[in-house]
C-alpha cells in the first residue's frame, strides 16, 4: 500500500499527503535545512541539487537548482510567507524553465500522528490552465526514469 | 473505434508538454479548438495540429454538434492521463522514500549523540 496520496481539488488545487515515521520537528527540519533538503528533494534518479539556498523566515527567499549532469537543469525560486515551527509552512514558488511559471501558493502542514507525522501539502494555482500545465511539467520530470520502466513492462 | 492501442504512437503523442497540457484540459471536459487556443496562447492552426496528433494516436475524439466540433478525451486518452499521473506519483514517491532515509538518519544521529 502506498503512503502517498495525490489528488486535485476544485479547479485550482492539488493536495499531496504523506505519512512519515518521525516526529513533526524532524520532518519540518528536513523541509527547511538546506543540507537535509539536498539529500531528498531530487525527483527522478540521476538528478542532483547543487544549489540549495533556504532562508527559512517570514519574507525569506529560497532557490533550488537541479541538474541531471548531462546539461539538463532548471531551478525554482520562492519566498516564505509564514513559518510556524514545527507545524506549518506557507510559501510561494515558481519554476524557471527558463521563463517563470505562474506562482504556486503552497501551505504545508506537519501534524503529529501517533508516533509519526502526517504531512499535508495544499497547492493553489492561479487558474485551472496553470494547474494542468504544472501537472504536465511534473510528468515530464518523471519521464526519464518512467520510460525505462515502461520499456521493461511492454 | 481503434481497437489496437499503439503504444509507440501514444508515447510520441505524449512526448510534447503542450499536448499533455491539452489532455489535462480535456480531462476536465470537452472543448473546441477556439476554447483551447485562448488559454494556451497559441494560434488555432497550431492547436489543430496538436489535436490531429492526439486524434491519430486515439487519445482524443471529435464530437459533431451543429457547427461546433468539440474535442473530448477518448478512453485511451483517459488511460494515458491516468498513467502520466501515476508517473508523477512515482517521482514524488522517490523523493519521500529518500526523505524517509534522511529522517531515519537524523534519528540515529540524535541517538548517537546521547551516548
What this model shows, in words?
The complex is a heterodimer of chains A (154) and B (115). With 154 residues, chain A is α+β, with helices and mostly antiparallel strands. Chain A has a single domain (5-153), classed as Alpha-D-Glucose-1,6-Bisphosphate, Chain A, domain 4. Helices cover 27% and strands 44% of the residues of chain A. Chain A is built from 3 helices and 8 strands, in the order ββααββββββα. Chain A has helices at 24-32, 34-40, 128-153, and strands at 5-9, 13-20, 48-54, 61-67, 73-84, 88-96, 104-113, 116-124. In chain A, strands 1-2-8-7-6-5-4-3 form an 8-stranded antiparallel beta sheet. Residues 142-154 of chain A have low confidence and may be disordered. Chain B is mainly α and 115 residues long. Chain B has a domain at 7-85: Orthogonal Bundle (Arc Repressor Mutant, subunit A), CATH 1.10.10. Helices cover 68% and strands 5% of the residues of chain B. Chain B has 5 helices and 2 strands. Chain B has a two-stranded antiparallel sheet. In chain B, helix 3 (33-40) packs across helix 4 (44-56). Residues 1-5 of chain B have low confidence and may be disordered. Chain A binds chain B through residues 2-4, 6, 11, 16, 18, 20-22, 26-27, 29-30, 36, 39-45, 127-129, 132-133, 135-143, 145-147, 149-150, 154, and chain B through 7, 11, 17, 20-21, 24-25, 27-28, 39-40, 84-85, 87-96, 98-104, 106-107.
